[in-house]
Amino acid sequence: MFGLFNKEKKESLDKGLEKTKESFFGKLGKALVGKSTVDDEVLDNLEEILVASDVGINTTVKIIERIQNRVSKDKYLGTTELDSILREEVVALLSDTSDTDLKEFETPPNVKPYVIMVVGVNGVGKTTTIGKLSAQYKKAGKSVILGAADTFRAAAVDQLKLWGERVGVPVIAKGMNTDPSAVAFETVQAGVEQNADVIIIDTAGRLHTKVNLMSELTKIKRVMQKVVPDAPHDVMLVLDGSTGQNAMVQAREFTKATEVSSLAITKLDGTAKGGVVIGISDEFQIPVRYIGVGEKVEDLQVFNKKEFVDSLFKKN
């Protein structure tokens, strides 16, 4: 279980998933009007609703099959039980990939510095996620250093510097059009010299040809390993939840290009496509580590599958 959920965090999560919940249960309610048992028509409607909520075809089929198995075992299963069955099956799917031992903004024991390399296309909230992440690590008592290795956009370097100033965290930057691996090397070197707990490296947000992307990220990893041999300890892919299936496509491209070890899914508060969290987690078998459910720093939350599903299925 992830760190304890306080009242404010739970309210923020409930609010952030409101659009997804209203859309999903509004459609489900209409589909069940006049129905008392879970028959083929109910399952067909449920399938359509799950796909429309951006859960994804493969994951939807898996959920429907699991429910069909339960219906066939219990002939008297009614539509009133469908909510709780759905809830159980979604939690079960997420359980397959969740990091059950990760605590709130703690680093693994005996790993110092803990090096995170962040990947993702422009516009998904990558730099903002890094800023919020560094603020929360700092709040948890960790010393943090950031590396502005997205050197293809001046805005990315400037934005990271602004976040550094805002949260009081040093940023290593060499400006635009410089070698990103040189920035990463200097950042890790500075982190080791300053005895930092956490080093976060921002990388270029372009889905250019996978060959280029792969060679660039491989080079960044290689130079970091000259200083910290097992770096990076986490390759985090940031995805924009509001883009639905497009986020799924990006996850597919990046997981082909590099070894992604965790996911951060942002902008869930502005969309009814929150089901994409379930689909991406299931399809790629990579843990969702953080979700963004609002503008505030605290609205980047450590993903807790039970609390997430609870908010999604909560009746007003």
UniProtKB/TrEMBL annotation:
CDD domains tied to this protein: FtsY
EC number: 3.6.5.4
Matches recorded under Gene3D superfamilies: P-loop containing nucleotide triphosphate hydrolases, Signal recognition particle SRP54, nucleotide-binding domain
Catalyzed chemical reaction(s): GTP + H2O = GDP + phosphate + H(+)
UniProt function note: Involved in targeting and insertion of nascent membrane proteins into the cytoplasmic membrane. Acts as a receptor for the complex formed by the signal recognition particle (SRP) and the ribosome-nascent chain (RNC).
UniProt GO BP: SRP-dependent cotranslational protein targeting to membrane
Similarity comment: family membership: Belongs to the GTP-binding SRP family. FtsY subfamily.
MF (Gene Ontology): GTP binding; GTPase activity; signal recognition particle binding
Source taxon at top rank: Bacteria
UniProt protein name: Signal recognition particle receptor FtsY
Organism: Chryseotalea sanaruensis
Subunit-level organization: Part of the signal recognition particle protein translocation system, which is composed of SRP and FtsY.
Residues that, per the record, bind GTP: 120-127, 202-206, 266-269
Keyword annotations: Cell membrane, Cytoplasm, GTP-binding, Hydrolase, Membrane, Nucleotide-binding, Receptor
